[in-house]
């Protein structure tokens, strides 16, 4: 069975207030970092299919439901479970 | 400069209502999948340091702020920017 690990992140041009808040939180705890950006991590276990079909399916699912293509981009890897 | 890509996911024993909702949403669009689990994806750009220190720092940051160790687990990779 194949499992897709999808990362959804805001485009670089889009402000990320949640990331800024986390950066400030880290700073208050003494952790100084350059930048923090927050996105979504989605794990999808697929019904039985080959890798080529899985890639097509994941692309379709991302563009139709999982991401907002105006402000987000996605990347993924597919692994055998 | 090093950048950490951190994935935070709910432990397997913890219910994920958001994932269930997304699975149902996918199903309504005609995408049948086995399971969907939703987590956070966090990208942290670090000040100048070596990889060993970076790993220590990321572990500390995760346990002190970024995750809730009662219900979440994390994994990460560190890459040269």
TrEMBL record, chains A, B:
<keyword id="KW-0436">Ligase</keyword>
<dbReference type="GO" id="GO:0005524">
    <property type="term" value="F:ATP binding"/>
</dbReference>
<protein>
    <recommendedName>
        <fullName>Phosphoribosylformylglycinamidine synthase subunit PurS</fullName>
        <ecNumber>6.3.5.3</ecNumber>
    </recommendedName>
</protein>
<dbReference type="GO" id="GO:0004642">
    <property type="term" value="F:phosphoribosylformylglycinamidine synthase activity"/>
</dbReference>
<dbReference type="InterPro" id="IPR036604">
    <property type="entry name" value="PurS-like_sf"/>
</dbReference>
<dbReference type="GO" id="GO:0005737">
    <property type="term" value="C:cytoplasm"/>
</dbReference>
<comment type="pathway">
    <text>Purine metabolism; IMP biosynthesis via de novo pathway; 5-amino-1-(5-phospho-D-ribosyl)imidazole from N(2)-formyl-N(1)-(5-phospho-D-ribosyl)glycinamide: step 1/2.</text>
</comment>
<keyword id="KW-0963">Cytoplasm</keyword>
<keyword id="KW-0547">Nucleotide-binding</keyword>
<dbReference type="GO" id="GO:0006189">
    <property type="term" value="P:'de novo' IMP biosynthetic process"/>
</dbReference>
<comment type="similarity">
    <text>Belongs to the PurS family.</text>
</comment>
<keyword id="KW-0067">ATP-binding</keyword>
<comment type="subunit">
    <text>Part of the FGAM synthase complex composed of 1 PurL, 1 PurQ and 2 PurS subunits.</text>
</comment>
<dbReference type="InterPro" id="IPR003850">
    <property type="entry name" value="PurS"/>
</dbReference>
<keyword id="KW-0658">Purine biosynthesis</keyword>
<dbReference type="Pfam" id="PF02700">
    <property type="entry name" value="PurS"/>
</dbReference>
<comment type="function">
    <text>Part of the phosphoribosylformylglycinamidine synthase complex involved in the purines biosynthetic pathway. Catalyzes the ATP-dependent conversion of formylglycinamide ribonucleotide (FGAR) and glutamine to yield formylglycinamidine ribonucleotide (FGAM) and glutamate. The FGAM synthase complex is composed of three subunits. PurQ produces an ammonia molecule by converting glutamine to glutamate. PurL transfers the ammonia molecule to FGAR to form FGAM in an ATP-dependent manner.</text>
</comment>
């Amino acid at each position: 069975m194949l499992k897709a690990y999808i990362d959804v992140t805001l485009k670089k041009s889009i402000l990320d207030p949640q990331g800024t808040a986390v950066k400030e939180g880290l700073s208050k705890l003494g952790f100084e970092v350059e930048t923090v950006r927050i996105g979504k991590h989605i794990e999808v276990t697929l019904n039985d299919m080959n890798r080529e079909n899985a890639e097509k399916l994941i692309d379709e699912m991302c563009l139709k439901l999982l991401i907002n293509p105006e402000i987000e981009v996605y990347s993924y890897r597919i692994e055998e479970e």
